[in-house]
Here is the input.
Amino acid sequence: MYRSIRFKLAFWYTIVFAFTFVFISWAAYTFIIQTLYDSLDQSIKNEAGWISARFDKHLSREESDQIVKEDILEHASFFPIKEYIEIWDSSGKIYYQSPNLKYEDTLTSHVNVNPEKVPIIKTITTFRNHDIRLIIRKLPRHTVYLAMPTESITSATNQLFKIIAWMGPIVLVLAAIGGTLLAKQSFSKINQVIETAQRINADRLYDRIPEHTAKDEIGKIISTFNDMISRLEFSFNQLKQFSADASHELKTPLTVMRVQLETALDSKVSMNDIRKIVANCLDETLRMNTIIESLLLLSKKDVGQEIIEKKPVDLKHLILQTYDESVIIASQPQISVVLDNLSDANVLGDEQRLRQMLLNLIDNAIKYNHPSGSIHIGMSLDDQFAKITIADTGIGISSSEIPRIFDRFYRIDKARSRELGGSGLGLSIAKLIVDAHGGSISVSSNLNKGSEFTVLLPLSVNS
Here is the structure.
């Protein structure tokens, strides 16, 4: 439990919230104290300023000292905050002392200040067991000592401290509860991901996590996880289909060979028949070898292995060689192979794989052509690509089947393909080779009119 991310999130949320509360409380406490002291200092300054102004009037009007003392006493009695006033004359005698002070307990007895450094405001902590805020102001003939108690400040700050002290544990508990609820809510979807991942196996790839409505990180994780499972389901289905098709393709020639060999064991079979059986078994062996080589090539690509070696290849020369071979292959079904204009083009690739790609496309054009049909092979330059076209006058491909013709083991006319020895891997291999060279392959077709395959291969830099 204590190692879970949810616990750590709740714990750190509480810690951060607690530190934030302490910092804000300290800042507020400090600000309030400073504000109260500033307000008290301003009151002290105002009172000292009034006394200074009163003495100015006293000197200008030549009033008696008794009148000045009475005015100071009357003014102080109406001030809302208790104040201690003590005025000394230049001869070192007390000129005026407020009634709340005693001669033996003067303000000067609690402070030792250099007269040259006044006016000054300071806190006295030794006055009658409580703190006072004192201002000292020097006038032409007098020195004024005026103090006010800080009890109003300390009382307010003590109350504030008590409130903060009481609120601290409450806030801490609320922060812990809030952090726990937040972590629980945040990780509820994560738990769904974990539970779904634990349920998923080869037979439950259809499971999905309910999508999260909020577009936050949790929602992105869920969407990404669901997308990953969808890709896995698609890949797994492809793998199962691939395994089934491969087993079927290999099973067919094995069955044929078994039947042929069982027939050969019959004592009544003539030598000529045995030769035919051996020839048929050899054909089936070659067919199986072709299928296995194609499967190995596809599996290498699936696991990320390189299937080509990149060397300079003269495409025009390669197509001319392939043309000679295709004429021989197409001669038996009486299909003519026509060579259209060929541009000079050099690519960086694997000559043997490119030859295999061209022969696969030509073989496909022969198998699905009409008797006495034709095949046209051409090449031109298209920007930075060599454009190879192989067109036939065959049965064509319906628009619904075009997106699937490059799938492994997919056949347009299954009966005709097996009759002619096709495995359904030719176009898949062709596309694989083209993709490995950084090119693209596409097809356009009309039913009963023919198809045209177009291959684009990037030209080498020196072309």
